[in-house]
Every structure is written in structure tokens, then in C-alpha cells.
Design brief:
Pfam families: DUF6698
Oligomer: single chain
Strand content: under 5%
Number of helices: 11
Structural class: mainly alpha
Radius of gyration: 25 Å
Largest sheet: none
Distance between the termini: 59 Å
InterPro entries: DUF6698
Shape: globular
Number of domains: 2
Length: 270
């Protein structure tokens, strides 16, 4: 009578010789490693408050301002210091108990450890999202059913950017004509340096820019919305209602509204 190969014979089960190195016995399952809560909160901080942030410097400067500089008038702080402190306060608000923990810490090393865990979370989230989107975004470059010419390898970034006709046209500054061969060549060689205040055309609805109304359609493109949904709701929600068995990042962190930083984060991932 045949036996189920997934059920070990009785002599093996009863054998006193069966140990952890017994090839016919399933070893003990590894317990899942739990994520430190600060790493968990750091992931959300990087996605929704500030992606590219030196958390250690942010926390240190925040402690100084709330401590020894707390009596200084607001007028003495620079615009950069005000902006930095707003980010710091947002961090405190997003992580339960963080303010008490850092303000009552017994050493600089303890504060550094807290900042390092938050930084780890922000960095790992950015890396995970980049890896996940590297393949997914290829399907969004052209309308469904149309071929991407030339094709792009899903696991490589070499053929992307200004080096590819389609991705280059989407990354091209909205006020520059990608069809101009001279402009295209200068963008590819780096001779044309794109400034921070030049919006790429992929941020605009239907990839159309209106010189007379630069705000028209801004941050309303299909590829940006899909990227945002991929990151914050779930990859399966991009083209339809979310049906994932696991909660998306927004629900996990209690995110109920879109922030300016989260839109910027999604844009940088494109």
C-alpha cells in the first residue's frame, strides 16, 4: 500500500536516533524576526515626512532647540532652521513616546541608537520601494497592450533615464523640447544640467505642459498616481480596487490623507 511521502514512516518517528541532522525529518521552524518599532516608524517617516534626511543630525538639533535654545526668540532662527524643526516636530508626532524617550535619554549613545534605527527604517523602505518599482514601472510606460520599443530589462537601470527614448521623454523638463535632437543629446551627455525648479513632464496629466498655466495638471499624471498607489495601498491596487490579503503601508501606519512629502517621495521613485 503506497504511503504519503509527506508523512514519515512510524519507525522514523519513533527512532531515538532522529535528531536535528536527520535528513528525513523536518527541522524546527525559524521564528520570524520581529522588526524594532523604531525601524517600523522610520519607514513611514521616510515615505511621508522626509525621505532624504540625516536623522541623527535632525534629532540632535531638535533636542538642542527644545532644551538649551528653548528661550531664544523665533526671529533668531533661520528659514532653514525653522523648516528643520518642523520636520523634527512631525517626527515626534509620528512616533508614539519618542519625545519623552529622547528628552530623558541618559547618554548621547542612546540618542544615536534611536536615530540609527529610524534612519535604518527610512533607508530600507526607500530601497524596498525602488526594487519593487523597478520592474512594475515598465508596464506603465506605454498604454496596455502596446509594446515598449526598444524593450527594457526589468532588472536593470542602465537602459533607462535619458538613454531610452520613452523614459527620456518622460524625464525631460516640461519647458524643454525632447524632440529637439540637440537638447536630447545634451541631456544624455550631461551637458544640459537640469535644475531643481524644472519639473519633468511625467508629473503632468497626459504628459502635457501649458506654458500659460504651469500649474495645470501638475502632479496628476497616471504614472505618478500608479506609483503612489503601488507604494501606499498595494501593488494590486494600481489598476483596480485593492484586494491584497495584507494591509498596505498606508493602512498599517494609519495614514488617512496624502501629504506633500508622500507625493514628492513617489515622484522621486519614478
Amino acid at each position: 500500500m503506497p504511503t504519503d511521502e509527506n508523512v514519515p514512516p512510524m519507525d522514523v518517528v519513533a527512532s531515538p536516533l532522529g535528531g536535528p541532522n536527520d535528513a528525513l525529518r523536518l527541522g524546527p521552524r525559524k521564528k520570524p524576526r520581529s522588526m524594532d518599532p523604531l525601524v517600523h516608524h522610520g519607514r513611514h517617516f521616510g515615505r511621508t515626512i522626509h525621505a532624504l534626511c540625516n536623522v541623527h543630525a535632525l534629532v540632535n538639533n531638535g533636542i538642542i532647540r527644545m532644551g538649551e535654545r528653548s528661550e531664544e526668540p523665533e526671529e533668531t532662527f533661520t528659514a532653514q532652521e525653522h523648516r528643520e524643526h518642523r520636520v523634527f516636530l512631525s517626527l515626534l508626532k509620528s512616533v508614539p513616546g519618542l519625545e519623552e524617550r529622547i528628552m530623558t535619554s541618559s547618554s548621547e549613545e542612546e540618542v544615536h541608537g534611536i536615530a540609527a534605527l529610524l534612519q535604518k527604517g527610512a533607508s530600507s523602505a526607500r530601497s524596498d520601494d525602488t526594487k519593487s518599482l523597478k520592474s512594475a514601472i515598465i508596464d506603465w510606460l506605454v498604454p496596455a497592450g502596446e509594446p515598449l520599443i526598444p524593450p527594457i530589462a526589468r532588472n536593470s537601470k542602465i537602459e533607462r533615464g535619458f538613454n531610452h527614448e520613452i523614459t527620456g521623454s518622460l524625464l525631460c523638463p516640461a519647458d524643454v523640447d525632447w524632440k529637439d535632437d540637440d537638447v536630447k543629446q545634451k541631456l544624455r551627455t550631461g551637458e544640459y544640467s537640469v535644475s531643481g525648479d524644472q519639473w519633468p513632464i511625467f508629473l503632468y496629466a497626459s504628459y502635457k505642459y501649458d506654458d500659460a498655466d504651469p500649474w495645470k495638471g501638475l502632479l496628476q499624471s497616471a504614472i505618478l498616481v500608479k506609483t503612489f498607489k503601488h507604494i501606499f495601498t498595494s501593488p494590486s491596487s494600481v489598476d483596480r480596487e485593492a484586494k491584497a490579503t495584507r494591509s498596505g503601508n498606508a493602512r498599517i501606519h494609519g495614514m488617512t490623507n496624502v501629504t506633500r512629502a508622500s507625493i514628492a517621495y513617489a515622484a522621486t521613485q519614478v
